[in-house]
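User: Earlier you gave me the apo prediction for this protein. Now I'd like the version with zinc ion bound, so I can compare the two side by side. Same sequence as before, with the ligand SMILES added.
Assistant: Got it. Here's the input I'm using:
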Amino acid sequence: MNDIFLIKSKVYAGKGSLEKLAEIQGTKACVVSDQIMEKLGYLGQTVDLLQSRGISTSVFTDVKPDPDVNIVAEALKVYWESGADVLVALGGGSVIDTAKGVLYFARQYASEKNVPFVKPLFIAIPSTSGTGSEVTDFSVITVDGDKICVVDDFIAPDIAILDSTCTKHVPNKVVVDTGMDVLTHALEAYVSTKATDFTDALAEKSVQLVFAHLEALYHDPADAEARDRVQNASCMAGMAFTNAGLGIIHSLSHALGGTFHIPHGRANSLLLTAVMEYNANLSGKINDRVCERYARLASLLNLPARTAREGTVSLIQAIGKLKKSIGIEDGFGELGIERDAFDEALSRMAQTAMADRCTPTNPRQPTETELEFIYRKSF
Ligand SMILES: NC(=O)c1ccc[n+]([C@@H]2O[C@H](COP(=O)([O-])OP(=O)(O)OC[C@H]3O[C@@H](n4cnc5c(N)ncnc54)[C@H](O)[C@@H]3O)[C@@H](O)[C@H]2O)c1
Ligand SMILES: [Zn+2]
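And here is the structure of the complex with zinc ion:
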């Protein structure tokens, strides 16, 4: 099959790019956001910029982390009643995914009611540097305690505004969680079965930026350059994985996050080592393709990589060192999850992870028993 590479979103990046909102064409906007964005004044700024263009606005500010389908339904009601021709998502991945859910279900609702649906201009303004959701065709919505991935080109934002001033007040813990999510996206896209030269270029740059700037941002949240660069890394990793897909770190993390409500990026970072070891098959005959790829990343980071195995080990060790330096625990047990509850949930979580949209593009196809083993190893 031929490679397909698509980045649908126009990206405005850099400090002050929020002002681009004053150039938007439209008559009515619906802004999906959360209470923190309102409290920090970003929502007011967004509404003012739209109004300066004569665009009236309705707002929905009740998004909660890891949004469930009921929140999407509430936001859909506000959007539908507003008759908006511009949909703005202002917030972290949870907010952007909710707005994507609104778009997805609005089209379905219109078709069921047999009324025409004119797609609004969809603008995403991320306030975290993690999911890359501002440029992806993914939305993660919780239904009955399970995180479901909706994947559809239709929900990818038309415009992404990366103004790192919007990420200025992100709590340090969230900086770490979201930054490790970026690294996971890039690593999974890089070894995915659908990786191409195009996605590799974005994933490589993203890994380099995370290694160069995440630790600095953790130690000095006022470091504006580090904040900008980690935000760029987040967007580039999003561009890579929306084309290449992800892998079982995300499958396992979705199933675990739905059950134990651990922040997405934190769950990923605790699964990284065990999944990389599994993908590389370091304990048996190594997986050449995966190890060569991990080793290429290791060389880009100036780590020892004379052989594919050495490069793989160097990369895994460097990730371990990075995790330690930014205060990430060694396993799920340290997050207060009870061992008994974890063991009891294992089989169901492994089953859910197996069926996840991210599993087919993992470089090694796991069995449920292997997924359970990875969970146990990450405890
Ligand atoms: N759509 C995708 O492509 C994709 C990819 C990866 C993950 N996800 C999903 O995205 C969600 C996680 O998103 P996230 O990691 O961005 O976190 P989040 O959106 O859940 O935000 C985490 C917390 O930080 C707060 N916050 C956000 N921005 C802030 C700011 N600037 N200042 C202060 N506080 C701020 C939020 O209010 C929230 O309490 C999960 O549901 C995950 O499964 C989606
Ligand atoms: Zn993720």
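For your comparison, keep in mind: The first strand starts at residue 10 and ends at 13.
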